[in-house]
């Protein structure tokens, strides 16, 4: 069993739901099932998991280590159930201290992740906090939360109101 990490800012999206923490290394999000290389998981290939397996997918500081981050993110989005959440905590390009991390395959910015997710019309952004944002990380990371609305979603005309309850 992984040691648990509690993140109050994501608890409202995870509490009471089944989910996984991808790339958790030695610390797993509280309440999530943890997966990383030590469990035999390749976070860029979730082909053994069925569509909609989890009510949420959480990942902290993993996506930037994957060469084809777009493919990996597509896989992560695929395994989220309708009305479920994708929660990403990533180092922000331009804010990472020093010369960056040599283990990073990509340096990502919030807008890259947001545009990629919102290109799939069955997803909507719920929250995004970045280092300069008052609710952002005081260091160098950003948080993105998106909701999978599902194929049957019929959006209200010009509405930007999002219900996060299941």
Task: Please give a structural write-up.
The chain has three helices and eight strands, in the order E-H-E-E-E-E-H-E-H-E-E. With about 170 residues, the chain is of the alpha/beta class. Helices cover about 15% and strands about 25% of the residues. The chain is globular, with a radius of gyration of 15 Å. The model has no long low-confidence stretch (mean pLDDT about 80). The strands form two sheets. A six-stranded mixed sheet has the order 4-2-5-6-8-7, sandwiched between helices. Helix 2 (about 70-80) links the parallel strand 5 and strand 6. The longest helix has 10 residues, at about 70-80. It has helices at about 10-15, 70-80, 110-120; strands at about 5, 20, 30, 35, 55-60, 80-90, 125-130, 140-150.
What is the count of β-strands? Answer: 8
Poorly predicted tracts of residues: none
End-to-end separation: 28 Å
- Which descriptor suits the 3D outline? globular
SS-derived structural category: alpha/beta
Number of helices: 3
Percent in strands: 25-35%
What is the percent of helical residues? 10-25%
The radius of gyration is 15 Å
How confident overall, as mean pLDDT? 81
Order of helices and strands: EHEEEEHEHEE
Task: Give the strand order, joined by hyphens, for the main sheet.
Answer: 4-2-5-6-8-7
Largest sheet: 6 strands, mixed
